[in-house]
Specification:
The structure holds 2 protein chains of 2 kinds. By secondary structure, chain A is of the alpha/beta class. Chain A has a single domain, classed as Rossmann fold, CATH 3.40.50. Helices cover 35% and strands 25% of the residues of chain A. In chain A, a hairpin with a 2-residue loop joins strand 11 and strand 12. In chain A, helix 5 runs parallel beside helix 7 and helix 7 runs parallel beside helix 8. The longest helix of chain A is centred in the middle third of the chain and has 18 residues. The chains are: A alpha/beta, B mainly alpha.
Amino acid sequence: MVINLILRIQSGIPGLDQITADSKTGMGGIPENTATLVYGPPKVGKSIFCYQFMHGGLSLDEPCLYVLTDYGIKQLQQNTSDFGWELDNYIEKEMLYIVDAISSISGTKIINTENFSSSSVHNPTDIMVKLGVGTRYISQRSPRFRSILDSLTTLFAFNQELLIVRVLTAYIMRIREAGGTALITYTEGSADVKVETMLKAVVDNVIKLDGEYLTIEAMVGCGQKKAPYKITNEGIIIE
Amino acid sequence: MLKAILITSLFDLLKKKEESVDYYIQRLYELREEEIETLINLGAIYAEEEKYEESLEYLEQALSLYKSMDDEEGQAYVLDSIGDVYLNMRKINTALEYYREAFKFYSSAHSVSAKEEMLEKIKEVEKIRDAVDIVDKHKSKSDEIPPKFPVEEEYVADFKKISEKLEELIKIIETTHIYDMYFKKKDAMEHLQEAYNISKEIGDEKGEAALLLMMGNILLKEENLRNALRNFSDAHALYEKMGDEKGKAISLLLIGTVYFILGDMGKVSASFRKSVEKFQELGDKHSETLAIDLLNMLYNE
């Protein structure tokens, strides 16, 4: 009997790997080298999901490429620090590459470093260029890495919707080619319904957060699952 | 004896007096027309060869002949041509004087379409003149205005200087701000090309157009005018497609600059005029000033 083994990486969300566990192998988590869309209404924990996914990987020595479009690097550091996940050390150890596409909009003066690039949500091409640089940087450090794009919502606000769908497709392709696992967030209703359908078609896995339940709508090697969750001082916990 | 024969022959010739006078007056008129045409052609050839003094000499002769024939339309035509020669010599005010004179004759001769065309031309050249004047006023009064393109001096473009000025203009387009850092890199063209390929891949037309302008400017700096013009024209087409008036206006300025270097003055004025008009329509004073600044720099270089 041939078993198609789907490699999974730990999600970093307590309880999620259990509900996604394969009945035969017992392995749970996010399928490796895939793209996952985490979507839902505002303020349901989508970004927190991202922090945990990033931190979970970093603590396992899996570097991360983080594309920020909703909040800048300062806020990312502050938000993660609130949960007790300090990023400075990982930045110093070159485990984290950040593309900040929002701080420049507010006029914040940013100095680009070896693992930090400033870009602009107005300029998807530049985001993709920086993403290319970041992917090369991160993939040289580890064949297994994570990438987060938080979120598509702001990109939709500043650009044509179909352009952003093409950006997403190119983004996923690059991360997959480099061997990474991607996570993308999106606020429900911020783009046309047809565009939302396209987003779901482009990714491999779809997870919905609605403030009460986490629903796995689609995932490689895993059926549909639904579980309640809560946001605590330690992040999202599946109950 | 000979005298008698000659007189006899002359009278023989003028036997039908009325008919002969008409014939020779007509013949004389045709010869003058032919002479004028030859003079104008000579003037045109000399102008083409940038031998402006010779060109003006022949055109003035043509003008005198038209005057003697009291041909207003002909005078207007030659005055217009003389104006063109002065424009090529970058003597804008003198050119305008001739154009205005030509306009008067066309009006007097009731040549409606020629009159309208002349008026359009005057407006166009006045815009160039005004643009240059405005910047002159901005300059320090103590500055001596350098002589404008001496006739005998061949125009040699300072590609580096022009490119720097164009860079300023390109930066007016918001999309280009972010690419500014590519310019600072050693292999700027390579980075821009990479970004351009990505913009094409994801269909980011704004980015594509901006990158074409930036790459075009590098090509211009490298004196690769043909490819620079192609890049600027492609960017213009993209801005046209997107309905981006500012982008269109800026790419027109860059196109006009290439034509200036190539010496195609007709296309220079058309590009600059359209561009300045667009900035005026948009109420974009800053861009208008930069356009004028560029024009001034080119005409005073």
